[in-house]
Design a protein that fits this description.
The complex is a heterotrimer. Chain B has helices at about 45-55, 80-85, 100, 110-120, 125-140, 145, 155-170, 185-205, 215-220, 240-245, 250-255, 295-300, 330-349, and strands at about 5-15, 20-30, 35-40, 60-70, 75, 90-95, 175-180, 205-210, 225-230, 230-240, 305, 310-315. Chain B is of the alpha/beta class. The model of chain B has no long low-confidence stretch (mean pLDDT about 85). By secondary structure, chain C is mainly α. Classes of the chains: A alpha+beta, B alpha/beta, C mainly alpha. At the A-C interface, helix 5, helix 8 and helix 15 of A face helix 2, helix 4 and helix 6 of C.
Chain lengths: ~625, ~350, ~325
């Protein structure tokens, strides 16, 4: 009896070894003809930002309007809970998404009439009005008749109170600097927060019940003010009675936004229910300024952190879209429900140039060797990404008035900047490498590349680089070690080069930048930037940045754009980072939901516009 | 008088990993009403197995291969578990050897005494406590009211054994089997317990089977004695016959091994060890350790030779053609002294 | 007995105190400021914030402030990242109920099933049933709970649709239970196996004991004897593993809760550490420590209560 059992157990073990891991069957509906949704062009050089739909995007006569109370329920799954609805101290990007649903802002980005991005005054009645020649005093008229969820009026007092609390010296909100000094600098804002002056000295005044006046330090443009005031959820309005009621005795802390009862909605939707850690429910706000853009009656968001669970829920018809990770994308590549967003960030390799233990990193020719030695198309293929030889990603807008992308404009104005074959030139790479060895007198190079273990594709890409670079430079002279770690740890490691200069050699990194101000994004590579990832100090870049962002020269749009091109060229010349690829995001969208854009395109600063979606009958 | 219990040719074997162990090989005896039958033998002689077989509490790997156990007109050897339910505790009771392990350590003793009664519905729950206290008094436990709610570890060894006896007597059985009840106790307590058993036997007209390896204990208790060795009864007879006229060399050895205050001789011990019952020896099992063994003892098993109507012994020495062998000196002297003492006592009376 | 309890309670308090101290110091010594993620924050602002929350003071001073807050106000601090401005205790309190629900139900089914399995195995020792259940027991102990969770979710919820794929937060009563059946089951397998194994060993021993034999000889049927003497005696040492089970359930199961989107205690500590929310980390650590220590105390006490040899014997010794 015992022997029989032993044999049974052994055979079971052997069988289990052969059992495939194919738990998830591919749930592909019979292949429909290739979808209209064009993916960003992978082979042609000037990659278009907006997928070129052959037919006219604008649909003729669409007089249909949504019902005031909306119709249908949109059901989403999110991978994290809201940390707080108080934009003054939001800590996660998820908070911004929630705020976008229920808050009201002075200005905000929308999907424009031609389905491109457009900025409109929301609470404001009109764009900022220049009041004098110094271009430092601006007035913002406010719409009349707008109310909070409970009927309380929205007026100038709301604006004054919201920003007064945001930069209050006792509350010390973590996001105060977004008002004080971001795209523009408000007069005495930072000083007030430091407690060095009175509220009356701050450059924000109430003129009358529906007009406020801003005073800035240094001249600005109306566009910049709009950018500043629509930057993130810290700039949203807060409801004074609720905020006050939730304040503690010595006014150092408020519980505003920590639950449904301590919050008041005024935006596109009203917060109906918030079960912490579990779900959020919104209901259409029929009194919203642009209520005609909202079709759904209700939106439910369920917090599900596990991606395979979310996918199951989608395939089961319980939620209306799901984001696809690298492996899932490969499975569902041909699925007609696939939609793709342009990358919102660049993925590159940061170089710790001043690493005392590895002086080769400081050598420009070595970095050029890396730049030209990376086969971007191959790496991007492994990572299901888009190869990128440049700094500013495809989605960045170069000209707000025409909506043309930075890359399109670069191709138009400076086609000479564009390298061949995504800058992949193994012969040139080897040449640079040889020169580097000569110049430094080093005979054998060994560098370590950190990658994020949170996503398996980075490991695959790193391994590819490990092999391919060794092939090009010669395995006897060049070794690339790779080291995986959780993303948060990798970020912390890279940033600690200040205290520990040799803490890393190379590390993958992402860079997310302003989509509408390409000249601004280089901020993170300025010498003065506090949270630098790498020891790169280039006064040329610093000067150009200040010129393009803070001096009067920026008022000339052409010049500003030129400076942006120049800064990119400086980066590509000095190579403190090696650009590699852009990571688009992929999703499966259920047929039950119709997105506001006809080709399911991803609009800058807005996204797919899920909240404007419509439930198909 | 009809015997109350008749065991005929009982054979019990165990299935061990090594093979089949023949623990009891054809044992037969009768128990007469109101008598105490002692079964004496070494450890491993098969005494406990015999009574376990009678009560049907053999371990799982033991079985009755052959034989009959007649009680109240039925053959208990053929009983199923449910049949035994009528017998155990109600008709035949067992007193265990080690009271400490025989009692449930975390159950109050009062409950342990009345449990069987209540479960078999022989008594109402309300009357049960009364009965238990009655029993405790009968076995000589002081302060029974208080002691009723106590746990076994709160009693001394002697007291615990009294409890076990009380449990055995709870349902008023007619046959009491005592399996070495005093072996685990101090010598001083031993005597008390033995007296108790005798007293109870008198009061309640019990019939008793008494298992022991100690001939000294047997002397006070037994009416008749069976001597067992290696799964067989080698000699049986009345107490007087066995003590004063032992016939089997094994009996001689047992009697000689009793410690005796009155002699200056070295303490006698039986050399050797009991045989391995996996492979029982041919012939007389005791032959290997028997200094009086004949060649025939190694060849063939001796049958029972009659010494009197009540006294039989299975030894070739009793064969008419066997050489005359006298019992050892020690024994002779001892027996002589015993007779003297008896006479003296009788004289005084 | 009272003296014993008092001694143990004192030891408990001291242990918790030591844990708190060490935890506090270790966490405070971790490099990096909690405000590092805020890219736009000016250095002056960061200095002001550090002053506001006392992060700029020496560790010892911070420690005393922290202890004083706990002892005098029962104030465990507020979360700064996970749910800014929300008191830590509120966060913990919110997450306990559903974890408790899942794990109590899990325990409620695993104990009886485990006991039945254990008893079956012991009574039918070395038979087909014994081997069969033992085999299952080995599987349940070795295979991690999340494997069962994922498997059940895929087959029973997604493929067959018998249960919801995730926990339904809005449900009450039987609908709530229905949506939690899968995680409850997933968490029950391991305890079932442990209880079964333990009970089998205990029971196998007690069945062979003398008092079992005496029970049968005095007239109890095999069933009665097994139930009243065998099983009853085996349950006493079972306290040893059941009480710790009660308290491990408070910790929730990180992975199972994640898979079924249950907003419970499971992920709290990990999330707190990942977001560098030290107050929450420390408070959660103390919570778990407290429970563990209470567990140990309860186990010791339970023996004293349940086993009369210790309970009364202890008295005699005084």
């Amino acid at each position: 009896m015992k022997k029989v059992l032993a044999i049974l157990l052994v055979s079971l073990m052997v069988i289990s070894l052969f059992a495939g891991c194919g738990k998830k069957e591919v749930d592909i509906t019979p292949s429909a003809p290739p979808a209209e949704t064009a993916k960003p062009a992978e082979t042609t050089q000037p990659a278009a930002t907006t997928p070129a739909a052959p037919s006219e995007p604008a649909k003729p006569a669409e007089p249909e309007k949504p019902k005031p109370e909306g119709e249908g329920t949109l059901r989403f799954a999110v991978n994290a809970d809201i940390s707080t609805l108080n934009g003054h101290m939001y800590s996660m990007s998820r908070d911004g998404d929630a705020a976008d649903m229920v808050d009201i802002y002075l200005y905000r980005s929308y999907i424009g009439p031609d389905y491109k991005f457009q900025r409109l005054p929301e609470f404001a009645a009109d764009f900022p009005q220049q009041m004098d020649d110094t271009r430092t005093v601006w007035q913002i008229p406010l719409r009349q008749g707008l109310t909070w969820e409970n009927g309380d009026p929205l007026n100038a007092d709301t604006v004054m109170y919201s920003y007064k609390m945001l930069i209050d010296p006792k509350l010390l909100n973590t996001r105060a600097s977004y008002f004080n000094s971001n795209t523009i600098t408000i007069k005495n804002g930072a000083e007030y927060t430091k407690g060095e002056c009175e509220w009356e000295d701050v450059g924000l005044k109430k003129i009358d019940d529906y007009t406020v006046e801003l005073t800035t330090v240094g001249p600005v443009t109306a566009d910049e003010i709009v950018t500043h005031l629509s930057f993130n959820c810290a700039m949203a309005m807060v409801h004074e009675p609720t905020y006050e009621a939730a304040m503690n005795a010595d006014r150092t802390q408020t519980m505003y936004g920590t639950s449904k009862d301590t919050f008041m909605s005024a935006g596109s939707y009203i917060l109906k229910e918030w079960i912490p850690g579990a779900s959020v429910t919104y209901e259409k706000n029929p009194n919203w300024v642009f209520a005609d853009k909202i079709w759904a009656h209700e939106v439910t968001e369920r917090v599900v952190t596990d991606n395979s669970t979310t996918l199951q829920m989608f395939l089961n018809g319980e939620i209306d879209y799901v984001s696809l990770g690298a492996e899932e994308y490969l499975q569902y590549k041909e699925d007609p429900r696939l939609i793709e967003s342009n990358a919102t960030s660049m993925y590159h390799i940061t170089v710790n140039m001043k690493n005392p233990d590895n002086p080769i990193l400081d050598n420009l020719n070595f970095r050029k060797a890396l730049y030209h030695g990376i086969d971007r198309v191959a790496v991007a293929n492994i990572g299901s990404a888009i190869p990128a030889w440049y700094i500013q990603p495809l989605m960045v807008i170069g000209d707000l008035s025409t909506g043309e992308s930075f890359r399109e404009l670069q191709q138009k104005k400076h086609p000479e900047y564009t390298p061949e074959n995504w800058a992949y030139d193994p012969a040139l790479a080897k040449e640079c490498f040889d020169k580097a060895l000569e110049e430094t007198g080093i005979s054998k190079v060994s560098v370590e590349l950190l990658y994020s273990s949170d996503n398996s594709k980075y490991k695959a890409c790193s391994e590819f680089l490990q092999k391919s670079l060794a092939e090009i430079f010669g395995a006897d002279r060049f070794t690339l070690e790779i080291q995986g770690m959780p993303n948060s740890q990798m970020t912390a490691t890279k940033k600690s080069w200040k205290d520990n200069p040799s803490v890393y050699d190379l590390g993958w990194g992402g860079w997310s930048t302003s989509k509408i101000a390409p000249w601004n994004g280089y901020n993170v590579w300025r010498s003065s930037y506090a949270q630098k990832n790498e020891p790169y100090f280039q006064p040329e870049l610093d000067e150009l940045w200040v010129k393009a962002n803070q001096t009067e020269e920026r008022f000339d749009k052409e010049k500003q754009l030129e400076m942006a091109f120049e800064m990119e060229q400086i980066m590509l010349r000095d190579l403190p980072i090696i650009p590699v690829m852009e990571n688009p995001n992929r999703y499966l969208k259920s047929d039950r939901v119709i997105l506001p854009t006809p080709d399911n395109s991803y609009v800058v600063n807005v996204g797919f516009g899920w909240k404007y979606a419509r439930v198909a009958d | 008088m009809e015997p109350i219990l008749q065991v005929k040719d009982l054979t019990v074997s165990f299935n061990a990993y090594a093979g089949t162990v023949q623990a009891v090989r054809g044992v037969s005896f009768d128990l007469n009403p109101h008598e105490t039958l002692a079964i004496v033998g070494e450890s491993g002689s098969g005494k406990s197995v015999t009574i376990k077989a009678i009560l049907g509490i053999l371990p799982k790997n033991g079985r009755i291969v052959n034989g009959e156990i007649w009680y109240q007109g039925e053959d208990m050897a053929k009983y199923s578990e449910s049949d035994f339910y009528k017998i155990r505790g109600k008709k035949i009771s067992l007193v265990f050897q080690d009271p400490l392990s025989a009692l449930n350590p975390i159950m109050k003793i009062g409950k342990q005494i009345t449990e069987a009664l209540i479960l078999s519905k022989s008594i109402e729950k309300s009357k049960a406590k009364e009965r238990a206290i009655e029993l405790m008094e009968a076995v000589g436990i002081p302060d029974p009211e208080i002691r009723y709610d106590q746990y076994p570890f709160q009693f001394s060894g002697g007291m615990r054994q009294r409890i076990v006896i009380a449990i055995a007597l709870a349902s008023n059985p007619e046959l009491l089997i005592c399996d070495e009840p005093t072996t685990a106790l101090d010598v001083t307590i031993q005597a008390k317990i033995l007296d108790l058993i005798n007293e109870i036997k008198r009061r309640q007209d019990l019939s008793i089977i008494f298992i022991t390896h100690d001939m000294g204990v047997v002397a006070n208790m037994a009416d008749r004695i069976c001597v067992m060795y290696a799964g067989k009864i080698v000699e049986f007879g009345t107490a007087n016959e066995i003590f004063y006229e032992p016939a089997h060399p094994y009996t001689w050895a047992l009697l000689s091994a009793m410690p005796d205050l009155d002699t200056k001789e070295k303490l006698f011990a039986i050399p050797g060890a009991p045989p391995n019952m996996l492979v029982p020896p041919k012939g007389d099992a005791f032959a290997a350790r028997n200094k009086y063994a004949l060649e025939l003892d190694f060849e063939e098993e001796p049958p029972y030779f009659k010494l009197s109507d009540t006294h039989y012994a299975a030894t070739w020495l009793l064969h008419p053609d066997a050489p005359k062998v006298e019992m050892p000196e020690i024994l002779k002297n001892r027996i002589a002294r015993m007779i003297e003492k008896e006479a003296a006592r009788d004289g005084r009376q | 007995m009272t003296k014993y309890i008092l001694q143990r309670l004192l030891a408990t308090v001291i242990t918790l105190f030591v844990i708190l101290t060490i935890g506090f110091i270790v966490i405070r010594l971790m490099p990096g400021s909690i405000f590092e993620g805020y890219d736009e924050m000016t250095p002056e602002m960061m200095a002001q914030l550090n002053a506001k929350y006392n992060f700029d003071k020496p560790v010892i001073v911070q420690y005393f402030i922290y202890m004083r807050n706990i002892l005098v106000h029962w104030d465990w601090g507020i979360s700064l990242k996970m749910n800014p401005n929300v008191p830590v205790w509120t966060i913990v309190r919110q997450k306990i109920p559903v974890t408790l629900y899942v794990n109590l139900y899990s325990l409620m089914i695993s104990l009886p099933l485990g006991m039945i399995a254990g008893i079956a195995m012991a009574l039918k020792k070395n038979s087909g049933i014994d081997y069969g259940i033992s085999f299952l027991v080995v599987i349940f102990i070795s295979v991690p709970s999340f494997v069962f969770a994922t498997g059940m979710q895929y087959f029973l919820a997604y493929k067959f649709g018998w249960f919801p794929i995730i926990y339904d937060v809005n449900a009450v009563g039987s609908a709530k239970l229905h949506s939690l059946v899968l995680p409850i089951l997933a968490l029950a397998f391991s305890p079932i196996a442990r209880v079964a194994r333990y009970l089998r060993a205990e029971l196998a021993e007690t069945i062979n004991s003398e008092y079992m034999l005496l029970a049968r000889t005095k007239g109890l049927t095999y069933t009665q004897a097994t139930l009243r003497h065998g099983i009853r005696n085996s349950l006493v040492p079972l306290m040893n593993i059941i009480i710790p089970m009660f308290t491990t359930i408070m910790g929730g199961s990180l992975v199972v809760e994640r898979i079924f989107a249950i907003p419970g205690m499971g992920g709290l500590m990990i999330n707190a550490i990942n977001t560098s929310d030290h107050q929450v980390t420390l408070a959660t650590l103390m919570f778990y420590s407290f429970i563990s220590i209470i567990t140990i105390l309860l186990v010791d006490l339970s023996y004293g209560i349940v086993d009369p040899r210790i309970r009364i014997g202890g008295k005699k010794a005084e």
